Amino acid sequence: MDINVARHALVLHQPGGESVRPLLSPINDLIALRPETTYDLYLYDQYWTFWPADWFEQLDGDVNVEKLVNHISDQAARWRRRRYHKLFLAAAQDATERKLSASLAPHLEKIRWLPGNQDDNVPDGDLPALAVYTLIRALELRPLDLVECPRCRIPWLTTTDADRNPFCLRPSLGQLTTCRQLHKEEQFRTRHGDWRREYKRLHERLRRGSLSETELMAWRAENTLESWQPFELWQTQTSSPTGARPRTAQKVAPDSGAVTAQKGATATRAGQSQKTSRSKRQSTSDSKESAK
């Protein structure tokens, strides 16, 4: 596999293009090796282009993913039996002192270093050799520190930046989601729990038909996670004379004086109509009498 480093990131080259990974991912992923199907799936996903070509068996014209994951699982089990997770953890500790562990020599000799800007090369699927390569390149760039992830409690190698995130980029125990992403989601729920509950309440009203989609969208447009009001309070304020606009069209009761006047006019017209009718009947009767 042709490899290189660009902008402090690992670049894996393959015929169809390239994939980019954080520079220290290989060594950190080896440190966290564990017998979990979710972790095998993570390795499958993160190093898709890195695995040997003969692992990609075909099934109905597509890659047999189950067979590929089985190959990865078997290889990861061999790495665990050789205690590579312990080996690379010790090497990471040495790296914090700007040293390269001599125990990495068997993997170091598998790397082909090419001059100038040419891509270097490691054997396909050899994650330990890739980890040694990225460790050396990382040591060339900046100081490193070994910290414990607050969530999975597994150490990981990172830079000494003051604003670094202590949560690692590997999947949390028994999950596919990374520790960092899970922490971010927890922070969101803690910080914006009230807003989420209000939105869920309004969405339930929408489902029952007691709230229109237009009203819900209008509330969302004017009530962000950082600044918001409960729907009823927001609706009251926006419907007031000083508010932006009324939220819903309301039926206004007619003025009582106008109703009385209207009724009086109707009665007058009815009385005039009755008088006209009696006058016509009287005129007809008088005509008949004259004829006799």
Walk me through the structure.
The chain is an alpha+beta fold and 292 residues long. It folds into two domains: 2-179, no CATH class; 192-239, no CATH class. The protein has helices at 25-31, 37-46, 65-81, 84-95, 105-108, 127-141, 179-191, 193-208, 213-222, 231-239, 256-291; strands at 2-6, 9-14, 17-22, 58-59, 62-63, 120-121, 144-148, 155-159. The strands form three sheets. Strands 3-2-1-6 form a four-stranded antiparallel sheet, with no helix packed on it. The longest helix is centred in the C-terminal third of the chain and has 36 residues, at 256-291.
Features:
single chain; 292 residues; alpha+beta; 4-stranded antiparallel beta sheet; two-stranded antiparallel ribbon; 11 helices; elongated; disordered C terminus
In sequence order, what are the helices and strands, one letter per element?
EEEHHEEHHHEHEEHHHHH
**Low-pLDDT residue intervals, each spanning 5 or more residues:** 242-263, 283-292
Which class best fits the helix and strand makeup?
A: alpha+beta
Tell me the strand percentage band: 5-15%
- Rough outline: elongated
Q: What's the pLDDT, averaged over the residues?
A: 83
Overall helicity:
40-55%
- Biggest sheet: strand arrangement: 3-2-1-6
Q: How many strands in all? A: 8
Summarize the structure.
This protein is of the alpha+beta class and 292 residues long. It has helices at 25-31, 37-46, 65-81, 84-95, 105-108, 127-141, 179-191, 193-208, 213-222, 231-239, 256-291, and strands at 2-6, 9-14, 17-22, 58-59, 62-63, 120-121, 144-148, 155-159. It has 2 domains: 2-179, no CATH class; 192-239, no CATH class.
